Amino acid sequence: MPIYSEKVMEHFMNPRNVGEIDNPDGVGEVGNPVCGDMMTFYIKVDDNHLSDVKFKTFGCGAAIAVSSIVSEMAMGKSLEEARKITPALVAEELEGLPKNKYHCSNLGAQALNKAIDDYLKKQGKEVKSRRRGKNEKE
Amino acid sequence: MKRVYLDNAATTPILPEVVEAMLPYLRDAYGNPQSLHDWGDEARETIEKARGRVAALIGGQPGEIIFTGSGTEANNFAIKGLAQAQQSKGKHIVISAIEHFSVLHSAKTLEKWGFEVTQVPVDGYGLVDPEEVAKSMTEDTILVSVMHANGEVGTIEPIAEIAKVVKKMGALFHTDAVAAAGTIPVDVEQLGVDALSLAANQFYGPKGIGALWLKKGTRIIPFLDGGVQEGGRRAGTENVPAIVGMEKAAELAQQDMSSRIQRLSALREQLIADVSSEIKHTILTGHPAQRLPGNASFCIEFIEGESMLMLLSSKGVAASSGSACTSRALKASHVLTAMGIPPEIAQGSLLFSLGLNNSEEDVDYLVEVLPPIVDRLRQMSPLYAKFVKEQGGGK
């Protein structure tokens, strides 16, 4: 088996918040099946806070664990706070990710951000520049 | 927890008889075959007897067997050693697109050394067309290498037909028979090849021992320089216990081959039929009939291989996958790619390779644990959700 941390294994075996939200306030999709991993995040926003976060993921064990923990980290947070979730934070929260999996599987924060962008767009609000993996420290 | 090993393509378990045969050579019979005393004489006689036994497995002569440290080494030796020995005649090599990395990467090294390499494509089953081999050859072609059987998708290649084409063009023909030798009948005379690689751990022998069969009179550049071992072509003190293990494994393989094939083919057919009927949107990869007895390889659509392996492992089942996520390089298997399988389908690669250690109960257990795993991952998969929506609901 790949060398994953206990935390990754735990989230992989028992992923939180799997699924879709009916009539979501925002949807964010990243990756594609050709490169290996694909994640779709669905959010519900109440009073500027994430009242529900769900995801669907196609990919390896790391991709599934990343999605799960991002949904957990984001749940209940304000949009501004949720935006502060970075791939580096996600990896830290998961007690590390294998080096070769870091970039391809660590797409959860990006998908969440896209879902927030989608929500703001629908609200007719200005979309703040989206965080991208390469702008962040790792 | 129940443990079911369905990864015999990676390595087969070693048979108890093989271990027993090896033990004396790990303990008391420790002589160096090159020594000129009783200890040496005994070791020398032992490995020469083994050479005959291993040669018999593939219909060769004892003097044509060169023991190596692995199947990978035998392939490196054949590709590099034969090409170098023939380079005054030409610089062109032909291999198939689905060769093992030990052939593929040896050919890459040859390119760096100034040789030219052509890869012959395969069809959707992974079959090499002898006509394609003929088309790819030129007057400059000195060596062709096509594997006997592919361990990843199980397809058995038409080696005798390819050999005819290659010989007509006057080139040497090597076949990597690591997945085939000791598993299905392999006869160098009938195949008409010049060189053939095999490895003991593929037929219930120990790891760390393989052989290159080289047709008598075929020139090759020595692989390891040193002493006179293996006719000066592969120096280094002979691995006597492993050679004895390979001998015993070869003897048993030859003796039990037809019954093993019968048993494994029946298990394989059961596994393929059950998995295909229990799990929708499953593609059998490789040739449906012309395949290795123990090989059941699939692509399970809408989900990824590594996550399947992890969940199978949590149920005690060992399998493997050619998905990008399971490879260190994060690239989908070159075999599946060469067969024209789209990358998103190849991501769902799942290989079960049966062996003598497996029973019908093992297959039943797999068919019990796999569908819920697939279901669980599909429920998580955005690709599956899209598919279901496009189908207008329903599973």
Low-confidence stretches of chain A: 132-138
The neighbouring-strand order within the major sheet of chain A is: 1-2-3
The radius of gyration over CA of chain B amounts to: 22 Å
Low-confidence stretches of chain B: none
Question: Which structural class is indicated by helix and strand composition of chain B?
Answer: alpha/beta
Globally, the shape of chain A reads globular
Task: Give the end-to-end Cα distance of chain B, rounded to a whole number of Å.
Answer: 32 Å
The most extensive interface, with participating residues per chain, is: A-B, 30 and 26 residues
Distance between the termini of chain A: 25 Å
Percentage of β-strand residues of chain A? 15-25%
Main β-sheet of chain A: number of strands, strand sense, barrel status? Answer: 3 strands, antiparallel
Q: Outline the biggest β-sheet of chain B.
A: 7 strands, mixed
Task: Quickly list its features.
heterodimer; A: 138 residues; 3-stranded antiparallel β-sheet; 3 strands; disordered C terminus; B: 395 residues; alpha/beta; 13 helices; globular
Describe the fold and architecture:
The complex is a heterodimer of chains A (138) and B (395). Chain A is α+β, with helices and mostly antiparallel strands. Helices cover 38% and strands 18% of the residues of chain A. In chain A, helix 1 (6-13) packs across helix 2 (61-74). In chain A, 46% of the residues are buried. Chain B has 395 residues and is α/β, with parallel strands linked by helices. In chain B, 43% of the residues lie in helices and 13% in strands. Chain B is built from 13 helices and 12 strands. In chain B, the strands form 3 sheets. Chain B has a 7-stranded mixed beta sheet with strand order 2-8-7-6-5-3-4, with helices on both faces. Chain B has a 3-stranded antiparallel beta sheet with strand order 9-10-12. A two-stranded parallel sheet of chain B has the order 1-11. In chain B, strand 5 (141-145), helix 6 and strand 6 (172-176) form a beta-alpha-beta unit. The longest helix of chain B is centred in the middle third of the chain and has 39 residues, at 240-278. The radius of gyration of chain B is 22 Å and the shape is globular.
